[in-house]
């Protein structure tokens, strides 16, 4: 197992600020969480329309995007707790017995099956130009207030420029997803921290 310092070297994220992920290579990323759709339940016409909308969306982009799927074990502790409370309050003997059978079924089912929850993410990147990167070498360490150079004004200028570019790209992506009929949300700083914490700490 790598030591703490070695683990930090593996992680490519330098900081998360204003809902934007700043990587150690000086690039910036925004992340959208997108709800999935059950494509198999759609009619042939609906499938064709969705596929065509998705194709048009990809063609319209002049920047690359990353689509990521995060699978995690489903936690139903709250649901089981609610069922047990219903069991305690239920007065009908027949219903009480059915609830017990249901709890037993869930318990046995979960022992032999892993129920996974899948979440879908769309990552939007922005890379500063080579001139910007060379002029402000060490931007990521400075963004984390680890060095005094370059100046904070220059750092903020680069960051807000990246923020503006990501905002433009977000709008393009949002319009494309809306035409496909997908629901989504832009992750906040707190949500990004939780997401990456879970990714780097799967236990």
Nutshell version of this structure?
This protein is α+β, with helices and mostly antiparallel strands and 203 residues long.
Describe this protein's structure:
By secondary structure, the protein is α+β, with helices and mostly antiparallel strands. The chain contains eight helices and six strands. The protein has helices at 4-10, 44-60, 77-89, 93-112, 130-135, 139-143, 152-180, 189-200; strands at residues 13-17, 20-23, 28-34, 66-73, 116-126, 184-186. A hairpin with a 2-residue loop joins strand 1 (13-17) and strand 2 (20-23). Helix 2 (44-60) packs antiparallel against helix 7 (152-180) and helix 3 runs antiparallel to helix 4. The longest helix is centred in the C-terminal third of the chain and has 29 residues, at 152-180. The two termini are 15 Å apart. Mean pLDDT is 81; it is low at 133-142 and 144-148.
Low-confidence stretches: 133-142, 144-148
Q: Can you count the helices?
A: 8
Average pLDDT figure: 81
Shape: extended
Strand/helix succession = HEEEHEHHEHHHEH
The helical percent reads 40-55%
Rg measurement, Å: 23 Å
Q: Could you give a short account of the major beta sheet?
A: 6 strands, antiparallel
Q: What's the total number of strands?
A: 6
SS-derived structural category: alpha+beta
End-to-end separation in angstroms reads 15 Å
Oligomeric state of the chains in view: single chain
Strand content bin: 15-25%
